[in-house]
TrEMBL record:
It holds the Pfam family DegT_DnrJ_EryC1. SUPFAM superfamilies: PLP-dependent transferases. Keywords: Aminotransferase, Pyridoxal phosphate, Transferase. One of its GO terms (molecular function) is transaminase activity. It comes from Pontibacter anaerobius. This is DegT/DnrJ/EryC1/StrS family aminotransferase.
Amino acid sequence: MQPLPYFQFRDFPAGLEAQVQQALLEAVAGKQYVLGPQVQAFEQEFATYLGAGAAVGVGNGYDALVIALKALGVGAGDEVVLPVHTFIATVNAVLQVGAKPVLAEPDKHTYNLTAETAARHINPKTKAILAVHLYGQVCQMEGLQGLAQSQSIKLLEDAAQAHGAKYKGQQAGSFGDAAAFSFYPTKNLGALGDAGAVVTSDADVKAFARKYRNYGESQKYTSEQVGINSRLDELHAAVLRVKLQLLDAMNAERQRLAQVYLQALQNTGDLILPQTAPDCEHVYHIFNIRTKYRNELQAYLQEQGIGTAIHYPVPVHLQPAYTFLGYKAGDFPVAEELASTSLSLPLYPGLTEPEQQRVVEKVKAFFSKV
Ligand SMILES: *Cc1c(COP(=O)(O)O)cnc(C)c1O
C-alpha cells in the first residue's frame, strides 16, 4: 500500500496545474516582479470576491495580522482579546506590536471564540478583539460585532483558515474593522510560497496598510510614516488570481469530502465529529475529530500508512516560550481538552475515493478493537 500523507498537492480541479504554469509564464514575461499589475488585479479581485472594500497584498499572514493591528492603532499598553486555541502566529502578532495578548476559552462545539467568552476579559485597557475563524468555520460574528460596538473597541479577524467560508451568507474577512489572510501554500487559497493580505472596508486602514508594507512610502522615496518591507510578489499574485477563480470549486470539494467522513464516521467509538453552527458554511481547512484515544489512534493510523496531524498539541498558554504571560495548566480546561483529544484527518481537494475509504476503514478498525 502506498502511504497516504496527511496533505498533498493534487491537480484539482483537473487542469489547475497547467493554468498555474501558464499564469507564471505570463507574470515572468511581464517583468514587474513586485507590487505590479498582477498584485493590483489580485487585490481588486479578492476584495470583490469577499464583498469588502479593499485587499492589500503583503508578504505573509503573520505580517497581515501585524499590519492590521498597527493600522487599528493597537500598541503598547493595549490589551487584545484572542482565543487560546489557535495557531501561534495570532498571539505572536499581538506581542509584535507591543500589546498584551489576553487569552479566552473557545466554544466547546465550534472551537471558536464567542462573544460570551470574549466579554469576560474586556476591561478599559482592551483595544481590540482578534477573532480566529478556526479550521474553516467563521465565528458567530453577530455577537462579536455587537460586543465590539458596545465597548467601542476594534474587531479584527484572523481569516487565515477561512477563505470562502461564510456566516449568514457573508464572507469571512468582511465582518471586522480589518481581517488578515494567509496564502501559505497549504491554506484553502494558497500561493507558491509565503503571501498574505490585509482586508478592510475602512479607507484609513487601507491607506495605512498600503504604505506600511512598503517602507511607509506614499510615493517613491517619500515616506509619510515608518514602515517595513512586506510586499506581495507578482508571481504569487498571478497564481492567486488563477486559484481564486477555482476557490469555490475547491471548497465545494472539501465540503463533499467532509460529508463523506461525517456520514461514515458517525457513531464510531467515542469520536466527536466537527459541528457546523446553523448560520455557517464551513470550508474544512482542517477536518478535526476528537477522541480520548487520540495518541493511540494516530499511532495506529501511522502504522497503516495514513498520515494525520494535530492542531494543536500544546495550547498557546502552555507553550514554553509564552510562560511569561503568566498562565498555568488548568486555566483553560476547554482548550486543554482540545489539545489532548484533537486529530486532523487527511482532507484536501483531489483526495480520491479509495484513499478516503481507506482512512474510514482504518479508523473504524481501530475503534472495533478498543
Ligand atoms: C497560517 C496561519 C497564520 C499565519 O500565516 P503565515 O502566512 O504562515 O504567516 C495565522 N493565523 C492562523 C490561524 C493560521 O492558520
